[in-house]
Each structure stands twice: as C-alpha cells, then as structure tokens.
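FORM 7B: Structural annotation worksheet

SECTION A. Query
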Amino acid sequence: MMQGMSINRRAFLAGALAASAGAVLPASNSTGSEVKMARSNRLAVSTYSFWRFREDSRLSIEQCIREASAMGFDAVEILHRQMTSEENGYLQELKRIALLEGIDLCGLSIHQGFLNPDPAVRQKNIDHTLHCIELAYRLGIPTIRVNTGTWGTSKDFDELMKNRGIEQPKPGYTDEQGFEWVIDAFNLCVNKARECGVTLGLENHWGLGRTPEGVLRIVNAVNSPWLGVTVDTGNFLEDPYDKIDAIMPKAVYMHAKTYFGGGIWYTLDLDYARIAGILRKHNYRGYISLEFEGNEAWQTAIPKSLSLLRGALQRG
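SECTION B. Predicted structure
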C-alpha cells in the first residue's frame, strides 16, 4: 500500500513539474525551432487620467493607486507634478500601497525641456531630469516619459493646441540649433539612466518631438539603449497610424489616449484595433498606459477606457 502511494506521488510530482515547465518554456514546432507564445500587454493608467490638471478633481497618488487597482488595471504611471512630496518616506509608502494593492508602479511622467537658447535654462532642465531618474530609481519605476520641450513662443498651451502643436522658434534661432541642444542634453542624461536602470522614453509630444522624423532623429543620434520612445497615440493630430508605425521599432512605453465626453483640447477618433495590429507587427510587449483626456467624469470614463483598450489591444 505505501509503495503504491509513493509511486503515485512521484508520478504526480513529475506530471506537475512537466506542466509547469510547459507553461514557462516556449513551445517548439516540428522543426525544433522555438515558437513565441502570444501574451497580452499589461495595461496601466496614468494618475493624470484622474486629475487632468483640474483643481476640482485632484486626487492624491495614493488614491489613484487604490482606484486603479479596484478598476482592474495592472499598473500605475505617476505624473510627477501630481506628487505632494519627494521625501523618501513618502516614496516608500507609495511602493508599499502598490504592493498591497497588487499593482505595478511602471512609469514616471515628467515635464522638462531642452529647447532653449539659454545654457543655464538647459542645465536646470538637465539637473531636473537627473533628479527624476533618481526618484524613479527609489520608487522602483523602470521608465520615465521625457520631452524635447517647446520653444515657448505660444501664449499658452491652449494657443499651442489651437495651432495643432506647431510653433515658431524664438527669434534669431532655428530648429537645427534646437536639435543640437536637445541631443546634447540627452547625452548628459543617459549615463545616469544606465546607472539607475531607468529607461528614458522620448514622447512624440510637441516641440521637436511633434513628428516621427524629429523623435527618431534625436533617439538615433543619442544611440543609447537607455533612450527609446514613449509612443503617444493622441499626439499625432493628423494621419496618426503611419506615424505610430514609424516610431514603434524604438518603443519602450506607450500612452493610449481616450476622450469620453469630448476632448478637453481636441478629440481624435482613434481606431485601437488598427493600432493593435501595429503593435503586433512590431512585437511590442511593454506597458500600455491610459491617458484619459475627456470631459466625462473619471469615475465612469476610466472604466470605459479600460474596457475599450482591453478589448482592442490585449491578446490571449
């Protein structure tokens, strides 16, 4: 009786180990070559989606993490401007809350810009970027959204949006000079990024990053694995799909925009099934982070957005 039980137990354990290995190891086809298993992208939400720079709906990062977990997101991206402290105790408390909520802290979105003729202004923004790399490191966050910055010749952001993100250089300067400043600045940031294990993702976000050509020119010139692209589905205002396709090979992170209730600045009718095809074409397996930019209340719009993205972008 005992001998039979021992044999059955060994057989059970052997079968369990084989099943476990099959779940982890790639399958092989009849020729013996490896077959990659399809898996879904992890869906995140930016804390910006809960706030959108509206003082009447400003939530703490702690609240955003708990709301995101309750809604079923996999991860949270933190908007730096939404943080109420940079003290280490606060940072570690955010990590603790995320752990208890079973959710990743996957991104830090910062505001900095190197598109300025004043070397002192550029250095201030370089120092800010280096500081934020350290913040991400202490938070256990693997990537930061960065920008080129804008020329600042628009009266305000509303005017910039009215002009579809197009802006003239400061008098006496050119975009060519601007590219030199931006490339030099990122070259001064990538060593710190490597040291901290934090990948920078240059977003297609106005300024010299308004076009795929501009984004790729900067990333290719820096030529570091620690500077890639944060692809934003809502920042190419015309013919977005070919432009998204152009920058996807360098993608390290992705923002997915939705506009329930009509956009705050503009509304794009984005075909996420088509975008999903672009992601599959380039085998993008990283995070996709929702940035809700509509007028509907976040309490209803963010769950709708999650359902939309999950249905279009995730695969089994």
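SECTION C. Observations
The chain has one domain: 42-313. The first strand starts at residue 27 and ends at 28.

SECTION D. Sign-off
Analyst initials: ____
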